Amino acid sequence: MTHKKIIEITEKITARSQASRKNYLDMIEAAQTAHHEKGLSAGNVAHATAACPVADKKSMIAGDWAHLAIITAYNDMLSAHQPYERYPELIRGFAREFNATTQVAGGVPAMCDGVTQGQPGMELSLFSRDVIAMSTAIALSHNTFEAAIYLGICDKIVPGLLMGALQFGHLPSIFIPSGPMPSGLANEEKSRVRKAYARGEASREELLATEMKSYHSAGTCTFYGTANSNQMLMEIMGLHVPGAAFIPPETDIRDALTREAVKQLVENAQKSKTKNRLADIVTEKSIVNAMIGLLATGGSTNHTIHLPAIARAAGIHINWDDFDELSQVIPLICKIYPNGKADINQFHAAGGMSYVIRTLLDNGYLHADVKTVLGDGLESFATEPVLQGGEIEWRDGPLTSGDDSIISDAQTPFSKNGGLRTVSGNLGRGVVKISAVKHEHYIITAPARVFYDQNDVVTAFENSELERDVIIVLIGQGPKSNGMPELHKLTPPLGSLLEKGFNVALVTDGRMSGASGAVPAAIQITPEAADNGFLTRIKDGDMICLDCEKATLTNLAEDFNKRENLHDKAFKPSENTTYQTMGRNLFAPLRNVVSGAESGGSIFFEEM
Fold this sequence. Notes:
Layout: H1 4-16, H2 18-37, H3 42-49, H4 54-62, E1 66-72, H5 87-97, E2 100-107, H6 113-116, H7 125-140, E3 147-151, H8 157-165, E4 173-175, H9 187-198, H10 204-214, H11 226-236, H12 252-268, H13 278-281, H14 284-297, H15 303-313, H16 320-327, H17 344-349, H18 352-362, E5 371-372, E6 375-376, E7 383-388, E8 391-396, E9 420-425, E10 428-433, E11 443-451, H19 454-462, E12 470-474, H20 479-482, H21 491-499, E13 504-508, E14 521-526, E15 543-547, E16 552-555, H22 588-593
Parallel strand pairs: 1-2, 1-3, 3-4, 11-12, 12-13, 13-14
Antiparallel strand pairs: 5-6, 7-8, 9-10, 10-14, 11-15, 15-16
Helix pairs in contact: 5-12, 7-8, 8-15, 9-10, 9-21, 11-14
């Protein structure tokens, strides 16, 4: 039986979303009617089939085979997406086995946040999600398909694909991952060398050698950041075939799982009995399940932005209070780097998603009665695939963890509470990922040091200006200001200060990424600085208290509430000519209309 608090939160979200959800479903019904009744003209069909092989063209014109769209985020820049190069031809062959045809309907941009971390290009990253959503809509606008396949894995790509796909929620849809790269250098060793480099105790050559051993082949990066959190979400929402998330690329079982995904989608897309539409899978209950999965596994803070945007694309309204309330009842059952020593391959070997879903279901922490790509019920996602004679068989997943230092039973969790807190106070509202923060660091009170650029923080650290108790306040990093880049570059220096015994924390209107670790960080503060946020009233030396126990973020200065904006001109892109470089000028219109982080940091949706 589902936990009563989960039911209560879900009912609250459903009531809050009643009007917008109805509008969404009305839109989907109208699209379905138009798709079936209006059809394409002869000229439309001729253009759509012109380049197809003769056999496929005959089947498409006859209309007796389902026609599947492929939306691909393939490029060679992303290690996780490089394997997708061969997928369209692979999928084409599988589709023909099951009396279906396919076309690559379109490609979407896919940038690597690992390449752009700390670089100007990172300021395009969050906006790329909405561009991906629009690109997905353009690809499907031809209205020639009975179903859609989405090829994407990494940070902004899966949320963008899903946001775009939901505008075509009348189509049965499935997401197909390509899997994580093999384990390389241990994450703890990578972190150690990064911190040593930040202190000047390791050379750049040593740092590069370490990074190359960590990120060394095709596949998703193996730490539990946003990319792997995406795959967890797609599985727990029932948008993969079971067990697909963390099987390595270029393996027989990975190809067999792709075949099964195509087979299932063709079954869902039969014209006489279309079923398991995307709009019927992404519901209030499945969104709550996604939030629960994020909390139970200690997933990426980026999803406190992405999940509200995904939900809004389906007419559902969630906010950070929902995350916080769920976090009070959802146990933390995973220890995956940066919240533990294990990487994603070790997590998968210990039982992975099938065991996570099993123990959460058994203890009432998930809605079991949801629709998935397989049909009704999440129970089938507590199974795992096995390759037998070239065919996939699903067997019951493990009933106990293979390594209880990586995955615990939900009755004996690592923490009784999930890994996120929503904090609020006279500095605004923000999110803190506490799953990797030691309890003695839950409350930090220290003087502020205000910065406008993460590179200036690094310089101050290198000049030994931060060798003390300090709360780094980094402002002008929100979506309206500079596109909200991740600030992962700060992790090594701040981690080094923490290890020296200083009370240190970060407060920012920017993002800290899925790699947020041991340093307490109140991030994504809203309203942001560029939106007349309260962060702009902070002076160097103000005593600030970040209290993750009471969920408060407070400037303790007596005159704080009487102050005016002290930093208004320091971070406005319109007054900084550097923002005309690296394509950032093209995104100025998006910065002008984007919503705040709690509303999804999106150009599509108004503030809640």
